[in-house]
Design a protein that fits this description.
Blueprint: H1 2-5, H2 27-46, H3 50-67, H4 75-83, H5 88-108, H6 112-136, H7 140-160, H8 167-183, E1 187-191, E2 196-198, E3 203-205, E4 209-213, H9 216-234
Antiparallel strand pairs: 1-4, 2-3
Helix pairs in contact: 2-3, 2-5, 2-6, 3-4, 6-7, 6-9, 7-8, 8-9
């Protein structure tokens, strides 16, 4: 939502093609790209590209079925999504509901590694969007949101660490640790303000403020690293 508010034009070149879902064969790649595609659904929906959003939802459903995430992205969900094409708030709310349902299912079935990978994929894709926009815009709100991600990255690393015994996750963690070193160079002055929630539309607004100091060199380093991580996931 912040990216759109900056006035940045729709750029489908940032997205992972929905057709790529066919080539993901491992649990690791499938889970990460369920997260990636979730971010892509949000992006295209905010820019009112409803048909593209439906295509991404179908890719999410395919990968979710293969991962055994039952019910969250079933035919009924897709039909509801399709019947609400053009109703941006309703579409976003349904996507949120489906991802929360999948997270609850995975925790219940003791498949937290899959859940954390989905979370990681979504975060990596949205950070990729953010750094792409930040390099072409000096919008202070984008830079603030980017700087705040140093704390989210720390939490993501902590969430992934219990699964370091899985070779592919260990490789991802090594990449995220390298990214964290670059984030450590960002100076962030953070002031917490309680978030507000629109229960009807199921949207939470972050009201906290940050003052971020980041050089062009640090921005480029972070942008290059997140692009490399993201390309290793979607490729």
């Amino acid at each position: 939502m912040l990216i759109k508010e900056t006035g940045a034009k729709y750029n489908n070149g940032m997205l992972n093609s929905a057709k790529n879902a066919e080539k993901y064969t491992t649990k690791y790649k499938k889970a990460l790209n369920v997260g990636v595609y979730g971010a892509d659904v949000g992006y295209v929906t905010l820019y009112d590209n409803s048909q593209d959003a439906l295509g991404y939802m179908k890719s999410v459903r395919k990968l979710s079925d293969e991962l055994g995430i039952l019910g969250a992205f079933d035919a009924t969900t897709i039909d509801r999504f399709q019947s609400n094409l053009g109703k941006k708030d309703s579409m976003l709310a349904m996507v949120g509901d489906a991802y929360r349902a999948s997270d609850a299912f995975l925790k219940d079935k003791d498949k937290n590694d899959v859940g954390v990978l989905i979370l990681a994929g979504g975060w990596i894709e949205t950070l990729y969007f953010t750094t792409t926009i930040a390099q072409s815009s000096s919008n202070p709100r984008v830079m603030e949101r980017l700087g705040e991600q140093k704390y989210t990255l720390d939490n993501l690393i902590k969430a992934l660490n219990p699964y370091r015994g899985q070779e592919e996750i260990a490789g991802l963690l090594d990449q995220l640790y390298e990214l964290a070193y670059d984030f450590d160079a960002i100076a962030v002055e953070y002031k917490y303000v309680k978030p507000t929630t629109d229960e009807a539309n199921k949207i939470t607004t972050i009201n906290s403020t940050s003052k971020v100091t980041i050089t062009k060199e640090h921005l480029k380093a972070i942008s290059d690293k997140i692009a490399a991580i993201r390309n290793s996931i979607v490729g």
